[in-house]
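REVIEWER CHECKLIST
Item 1: Sequence provided? yes
Item 2: Single chain? yes
Item 3: Sequence as submitted:
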Amino acid sequence: MKPENNNNQRDFYRCDIQLPFTFSIIKGKEVVGPYVGRTLNLGGGGMFFATSCPLLQPGTLLLAEFKAHEKGEQLPEGALSGDFMARVIREEVGDCESTLERRYILAVEFKFPHKATKNDIVAYLNRYEAHRKGQ
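Item 4: Structure as written out by the authors:
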C-alpha cells in the first residue's frame, strides 16, 4: 500500500481502523502486563493507539497481541492475529470525554525479525480497505 497524500512521511500507508488489542511492556528480562489498547490507525510499519496505561514513553519496547475479531464486527475475513514487537516513538496525553479517564495516545514503530510479519499486516489492511469500499 502506498501513501495517499504528501503529508504521510511513512513507508506504509496508515489505515484508520480501530482494533482492540493487548500489549505487554518489555523491561530488560521482565515482561509487565497485559494492558489493553485500541488502534487509531495501523500500517505495515507501525500504529497509533490509545490506552489508559501510564507506563509507556518514547523508547519503551512492547509486544502487541491482536486476536481474532468478535462475531458481529463489520470487518473482513482473515482477522489480524499474532504478536508484534514495537517501540514507542511518540506519546500524547489527554482525557477521554465520555469517561473522563486519562488516555495516552502513542505512536509505535514495529520491529520485525521477518518480513512476513509486515506483509501479514499489509495484506490484512488491503482486505479491510476492500471490504470497506464494498459495503
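Item 5: Key structural point noted by reviewer: The first strand starts at residue 20 and ends at 27.
Item 6: Recommendation: ____
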